From TrEMBL, chain A:
GO biological process, one term: tRNA wobble uridine modification
Pathway(s) annotated for this protein in UniProt: tRNA modification; 5-methoxycarbonylmethyl-2-thiouridine-tRNA biosynthesis
Name the UniProt record assigns to this protein: Elongator complex protein 6
Protein's gene: LOC102379487
Similarity field: Belongs to the ELP6 family.
Superkingdom of the source species: Eukaryota
Gene3D superfamilies: P-loop containing nucleotide triphosphate hydrolases
Species for this entry: Alligator sinensis
PANTHER family, A to Z: ELONGATOR COMPLEX PROTEIN 6
InterPro entries: ELP6 (IPR018627), P-loop_NTPase (IPR027417)
Pfam families according to UniProt: ELP6 (PF09807)
One Gene Ontology cellular component annotation held by this UniProt entry: elongator holoenzyme complex
Automatic annotation (TrEMBL), chain B:
Superkingdom of origin organism: Eukaryota
Residues in coiled coil: none
Signal peptide: none
Full protein name: Elongator complex protein 4
Gene: ELP4
Compartments, as annotated in UniProt: Cytoplasm; Nucleus
Record Pfam families: PAXNEB (PF05625)
Single GO cellular component term: cytoplasm
InterPro entries, A to Z: Elongator_complex_protein_4 (IPR008728), P-loop_NTPase (IPR027417)
GO biological process, one term: tRNA wobble uridine modification
Length: 204, 240
């Protein structure tokens, strides 16, 4: 099982207005080192300049970018956040990060019938309690967790890691398909190949 | 380029690698830069005590002023020397190479090396993120040393690792029980590779070997594979 053998052309999607891309590093550079833009619209990363722990401008950016205008035919938007752990490194408190995600979910999921995908870093025996708090809270709020980690047995050239797919639904709505599943994977240049445990081509 | 320096000393004909006595990059650590080379190269330095009198004019709230000034200085050099494409570089295109020493130490006005409850845990990580944005928007690369052994708050080091492309740690044997371990008698310490870059691609080049040790001789700093058997539990070493 492998994903997207042909790939998706992101520049083309951006041209069509199908993709809105906020590049954090570029935005950060602009908010700190470039002159104030004449529009007066606050930058989504205004908080880096102002200090404090306020992600309101970032949320507003998400809301205005994903809310369709009259002429748009796109429906059911997907918000990808890569990655939330960086916000903590920039001085945001965990509660503000979780509030931001909560507001995004309310707009994207409930109002616009879309999906939110959030990436967080975590590690075993991590000392970063703030980050672990955010990870745990996000896991509890999610319908689906994709948990990628290295192999317990250590590094292997042909198996780069394993992915646990953990559906989270209320017990009464769970079906057989909702049991956690584990796949191992090998990353290639532009593709990832998944296989069941013990079924790596190197082993067979 | 990586292939070129590794093989530059091998004979041109097909021969077994053992035939060559030299392998790898030969760098004489006992030599310093010649004054002529220094004079002909354009370089800049940043010494915080000299900069203290100048007012920073970018506003980054709650960041240690030493870091703010350093960021401002780097951005000024990038702009003035044309590394960001704003005015074309006069001679052949070059990359700005930046070296920052002892980031996180008290020399930068920080206290994360003195206490495990520092006044501001976010200054260092904010600095690294903003530095990364400067490097991303210009033709530059940066190498930073951090006295990690002095930073009590381990969460900070985890975040620093996640904010970096490549992270290498040197663990000295001096003062540790490994100093007298016969397994390590030929070495001065271990090298840990915590992170390798994954720039613009999905995979990275992970080496097969994880146990690397270093030795500092008078002229050479060598890195060698060292088969470790001092793992805390689980590994049995059978001596014939």
């Amino acid at each position: 099982m492998s994903f997207c053998p042909q790939g998706v052309s992101l520049p083309a999607a951006k041209e069509r207005g199908q993709l809105v891309f906020l590049e954090g590093l570029k935005s950060c550079f602009e908010v700190l080192f470039k002159e104030e833009p004449p529009t007066g619209q606050p930058s989504p990363l205004q908080f880096i300049r102002e200090g404090g722990s306020n992600l309101k401008a970032l949320y507003e950016f998400v809301r205005t970018s994903l809310t369709p205008s009259e002429s748009d035919s796109w429906k059911c938007p997907v918000l990808l956040v890569d990655d939330v752990s960086v916000l903590l490194s920039l001085g945001m408190r965990p509660v503000d990060v979780l509030d931001f995600i909560h507001y995004c979910r309310a707009t994207v999921c409930s109002q616009l019938k879309g999906n939110v995908v959030v990436l967080v870093h975590s590690s075993e025996n991590s000392d970063d309690t703030e980050n672990e708090l955010v990870v745990n809270a996000l896991c509890h709020q999610s319908n689906l967790i994709l948990w990628a980690e290295g192999l317990a047995t250590g590094y292997c050239k042909d198996i780069h890691g394993q992915l646990k797919i953990i559906p989270r639904r209320p017990a009464e709505l769970s079906t057989e398909r909702d049991l956690p599943r584990t796949y191992q994977y090998k990353i290639q240049d532009r593709n990832v190949t998944f296989f069941a445990r013990g079924m790596s081509a190197a082993v067979l | 380029m990586k292939i070129a320096w590794r093989y530059q000393n091998l004979p041109k004909m097909e021969a077994s690698p053992a035939a060559s006595s030299r392998f790898g990059h030969y760098y004489d650590v006992s030599k310093t830069l010649s004054p002529e080379l220094l004079q002909s190269t354009k370089w800049h330095r940043f010494f915080l005590p000299e900069e203290i009198s100048l007012q920073p004019n970018i506003n980054i709230c709650n960041m240690t002023s030493g870091y703010t000034r350093l960021l401002q200085s780097i951005q000024r050099i990038i702009y003035q020397e044309g590394f960001d494409g704003s005015h074309p570089q006069k001679k052949q295109k070059n990359i700005l190479r930046i070296g920052i020493q002892n980031l996180g130490s008290v020399l930068w006005g920080e206290d994360i090396c003195c206490t495990d409850n520092p006044e501001d845990v976010h200054s260092l990580t904010k600095f690294l993120y903003i530095l990364r944005s400067l490097l991303r928007m210009s033709l530059s690369a940066c190498i930073i040393t951090v006295p990690a052994h002095l930073i009590q708050n381990k969460a900070i080091m985890e975040r620093v690792t996640n904010l970096s492309d490549t992270v290498v740690a040197l663990e000295s044997f001096i003062g540790s029980e490994r100093e007298t371990n016969p397994l390590y008698k030929d070495y001065h310490g271990l090298i840990h590779i915590h992170q390798i870059p994954q720039l613009n691609c999905l995979i990275c080049d992970v080496s097969d070997t994880k146990d690397l040790a270093f030795r500092l001789k008078r002229k050479l700093f060598t890195i060698e594979v060292c088969i470790r058997t001092d793992y805390p539990e689980g590994l049995w070493y059978l001596h014939p």
